[in-house]
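Database export, one record per block. Field names are fixed; values are copied verbatim from the stored entry.
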Amino acid sequence: MNEPLRTLIEAARKAPRTKSDLEVQRRSFAYGNTHFENEKITREMVNRIADEMPFAENVNLNANRVDE
């Protein structure tokens, strides 16, 4: 691994992660794994279900939502 890449990876490891960042990553992971198994699953479906979960009110995703 070259030094610039190693430096970037180390910086990413130390970067602070917000609850919102983790929630966006969780939803993306859920979508990727479910859509892989069933093409009828959409990001909108994952977001709707995640929004209904009890802990969803603790996270603000307005700035970070990925609906692509």
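Remark 1: The chain has one domain: 17-68.
Remark 2: Residues 19-37 form the longest helix (19 residues).
End of record.
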